[in-house]
Amino acid sequence: MVQAWYMDESADDPRRPHRAEPSRPVGLEQLRRLGVLYWKLDADKYENDPELEKIRKERNYCWMDIITICKDKLPNYEDKIKVFYEEHLHLDDEIRYILDGSGYFDVRDKEDRWIRIFMEKGDMITLPAGIYHRFSLDERNYVKAMRLFVGEPVWTAYNRPADHFEARGQYLDFLAQTV
Fold first, then answer.
1. What are the pLDDT digits (tens) for 1-30?
2. Which residues of the chain have pLDDT under 50?
């Protein structure tokens, strides 16, 4: 099951857990109210997994590739890690399925506080278009992930502030309708 919690305010190494003290865990229902969707799948059979195929078909995730984020595999590793950790949004959903390794997705709640979502092998997440978020490896410095898209991939990240985009307005409207 996914682990998520409110973060502390430390600017220390982003690869550390950064749990707020006292601990403030966040459950799946709270993530759903932010538009974040989560599945636990069997990453060892991702190439022939009927459950993954069902999700892809239902949600129209028709494009995919696999990225490995570690010093030995990702060109311009140090620069990319910094870019991933910049607070940003996308105009499309961000869908990631962890095939190996682990890392953190941080998302903003309705009050603009950071929630850290620990992702490890078998975890699949969808972050809705317009949500401010960022990504960091954990202290293992390795993750292999499937990236999925509806239609052709769009890689553009818009760093905060990006409130003028329609996707952000639609996301804020969604938040206003959730209790």
1. 899 999 999 999 999 999 999 999 999 999
2. none
- Residues making up the annotated binding site for Fe(2+) are 88, 90, 94, 133
Phi and psi for 86 in degrees, rounded to 5?
A: -70, 135
H-helix segments, the chain = 28-33, 50-59, 77-85, 166-177
The answer, yes or no, to whether the previous bond of 161 is cis (omega within 30 of 0) is: yes
Tell whether pTM > 0.90: yes
Q: Which residues are annotated as a binding site?
A: 88, 90, 94, 133
Question: Which residues make up each annotated binding site for Ni(2+)?
Answer: 88, 90, 94, 133
Element (H, E) at 101: strand 94-108
Closest CA to 143 of 57, 83, 77, 67: 67
